[in-house]
């Protein structure tokens, strides 16, 4: 008589579909309920209304919230501003990360390469709020930035959109450096040698071989920097002065007008979906 | 013994002086304390199929990379067609390389890969297209022009790499173990194909390999590398029949060395000697050897059947061990094994005995290793 465990193992071995179902049903249930379920609730609640007098939610199916978001210039401006900030952060991070990752992966000696990697990764362990407030201190009147820039006739940009862009660029930079670092590291030396061998000068090799091969990594990094900036609501509160972004519009509406907050939060979700669809055609998603 | 002829110096007696396609003089490459290439002099003639043969780490690939310009020598000069290119970058040299891993650009199609060099040199589009098509036809890949390298087999990628280099019509084509990644059958096909392409294009090929059969079958001349130095330069027949050093005798073909007392007994004079296994005749101990023959009695200790031939390992009475090959003309596998333990006489033509020097560049017949 075979022990029951062995019989079960045998049965699973003969039925690969059953095996697969047993393996992934729990995580799939979690994904469906907790993750997609929350998104569905978000979408559904956007069609409800808040009673202006009682502040209670009326479960009446209507599209007023979406109409408000689409027609009210306030929301349109906030959306465009958020988009602009996210784009600027992504661009700045790409420009900084490119030479940085190149140096780490292809120029630095193994020892300093490890040190640089640690230097890039360490800030990820520090708390978000700590870093944001550290920047608040640096950017404030009479702070470090003022002190450094004063001899050049400059000063801190103060609290506003530039400060938000600077701090967000700082916060998400590692997410751009790491995929680029990997891409540069995996770039075979022989491809660069082959390009030179075929008569290409370094700049030509860079444009014709290096750039196209690391482009997917830039796009992968930009998905992080872009979507994280798009959803951010704390940095803008700390160093943004009076600046409004989609994130803090949503945050401030959650308690007052949940259906409207839900409708507003559909905007970044749609932008990200559109971005991912555009990016998918470049093949960058295969490298995530 | 026969020494290999001195390499052509260009100013030969007949015709006007033609500069060597590649000339190295005193080329050295040190990586830290390690001298990967140690003072190499070499002349490669125009139109020649020249192989650099040696084990891994012998410096042959480093020499190739210095000709291509990927490495700068720490000493000595590199000349291409008579012009000093020692300090020139790869993109300023009229050579192209077929890389060991092919190094095809993965983001470009086969046609774009082949056109890359022409595009960089601003060859007009019409000519570019025509020449790329010709190059692809030469390696029989016309139908694969639109594919990506990832969609090709190893042999096809190899041929794309070849077309990509040849389309530029370089004066010298450098090949870095280009057949190493292919399976045996494909490798044999590509050997013939490469040789054919080289003859038709009339381009100097410098071919790096660690495979002695490959070097022997394809080359006009071979340089045998060991420990950063060249042990011998010569035609395949010269290198095989008359190895200059112990290393060459051992690396090219089966090592069949006799030295010390055994050598003194067999040859009447101590020294280091080599005899190729296929030159050795196995006879009955009572049969006399011919007047021009050397001979040595011994016992067969091992019989290895290898299909077309059988390998006999014989321990000599004088000491030492020789391997003799025999074509399996009449005997089959079951028969040959019974020879194990038999007493035999080994005999070979006196002229097939090669006296070796243990050290490179020191091949005088009077040299006594003792």
From TrEMBL, chain A:
It is a multi-pass membrane protein. It is found in: Cell membrane. The chain crosses the membrane at residues 20-48, 83-103, 115-139, 159-184, 205-226, 258-278. PROSITE patterns: ABC_TM1. CDD domains: TM_PBP2. Gene3D superfamilies: MetI-like (1.10.3720.10). Keywords: Cell membrane, Membrane, Transmembrane, Transmembrane helix, Transport. Belongs to the binding-protein-dependent transport system permease family. CysTW subfamily. This is ABC transporter permease. It comes from Streptacidiphilus cavernicola. The lineage of its organism: Bacteria, Bacillati, Actinomycetota, Actinomycetes, Kitasatosporales.
